[in-house]
Amino acid sequence: MTGRAWPFLIARGRRRGYSALLVPGFLREHGFLEATATPLDDVPSRAAATPHGVLVWAEHTVTAAEARGEPRDEYGRPLVLLHGFLCPDGDPAPAAAALTRTRTTALAVYDRFLADEEGFRTERSEPFAIEVTEITEVVRPRVSPPDTPVRPVRGLAWAGAGVLVVAAAVAAVVGFASAGNDAPPPPECGPDVVAPSVAPAVSAATCVRGGTTVTYSAPPSRHPA
What we know:
Layout: E1 2-11, E2 19-24, H1 31-36, E3 45-50, E4 53-61, H2 64-67, E5 80-87, E6 91-92, H3 96-115, E7 123-125, E8 128-133, H4 154-180, E9 204-209, E10 212-217
Parallel strand pairs: 2-7
Antiparallel strand pairs: 1-2, 1-5, 1-8, 3-4, 4-5, 6-8, 9-10
Keywords: Membrane, Transmembrane, Transmembrane helix
Transmembrane segments: 156-177
């Protein structure tokens, strides 16, 4: 299928450092270009997947004719172009012809840059057609997560323990209250108590003799009515 290839150029001048001189026209930000398209190590070109598509680039060492003078910067380093294209439509076919085209575009932009390095502003490119292999989205089967092991319900255990503690506290309070409400023990039997009564009358009294509580008939009042 046919896709779009958007040329780009990253290069330095005789005084100005590396920067993006030509960027794909559809991009709002292009910082990833400088971060991705780095100098090559003895390879003719390189490709990398980015969030905006496949980035393909190559190096070109500028000649004296192309530089219209000394093809070196103020430190004596050769002027090198990193040129290529960004393809958002798929995986580009063999890119040799496309890179030849982007080199021609890059040299034209670079010529304008060398003419006024300080005043140059980044330019935006237009796409050209390129054969690409459509990238098919991989469909992955959905895998159910493993069963979650049943965990003991700590809330119920703590609630049960709380109920037991409250019940024990209530029982202690009731026992203490009950103990506080007991009637006082009867007094020791006096000498006027002659014998315990077997069937005491209504006006009966109690006393303690030899550690035993006895019930006896209260003696009649000695005070005249």
